[in-house]
Amino acid sequence: MRSPGAEADVDLAFERARAAQAVWALTEFAERRAILLRFHDLLLDRRDEILDLLQLETGKARRHAFEEVLDVATVARYYANTAERHLRPRRRRGPCRC
C-alpha cells in the first residue's frame, strides 16, 4: 500500500529532474567534465563511508561493495573524458545513395 504522499513525492522528483536536465543541457562540456571528475574524486576520497553505507543497506561483502564504488567511479571518469565525443552532432547516411 502506498503512502498518501508517495505520488506527490514522485511527481516532485520528476519535476526537479526535468529542471536539472534543462540546466545540464546548457552546461558547457568543460564544466560537465570538471563536475564528473570531481564526483569521481569525491567518491574515491569518501569510499570508506560509502562502503559502510552499502554494506549496511545491502548486506554486501566489503569486496563487492568496493567493486560497485569502483564501477561508478570508472563510469564517471569515462564519461568525463568522452561525453563531448558521444554527444556531438553527427551526419548519418541514409539507406540509399541517390
Please, could you describe this protein's structure?
The chain is mostly helical and 98 residues long. The protein contains four helices and no strands. Helix 2 packs antiparallel against helix 4 and helix 3 packs across helix 4. The radius of gyration is 19 Å and the shape is extended. The model has no long low-confidence stretch (mean pLDDT 92).
What is this structure's SSE topology?
Elements: H1 6-25, H2 29-45, H3 47-58, H4 62-87
Helix pairs in contact: 2-4, 3-4
Write a concise synopsis of the structure shown.
Helices cover 77% and strands 0% of the residues. The chain is built from 4 helices and no strands.
- Average pLDDT metric: 92
Main sheet overview: none
How many DSSP H or I helices? 4
Structural class label: mainly alpha
Overall, the morphology is: extended
Q: What is the N-to-C order of secondary-structure elements (H for helix, E for strand)?
A: HHHH
Helical content class:
over 70%
Which regions are unreliable across 5 or more consecutive residues at pLDDT < 50? none
The tally of beta strands, per DSSP, is 0
- The share of residues in extended strands comes to under 5%
Q: How far is the N terminus from the C terminus? A: 59 Å
Q: What is the gyration radius calculated from CA atoms?
A: 19 Å
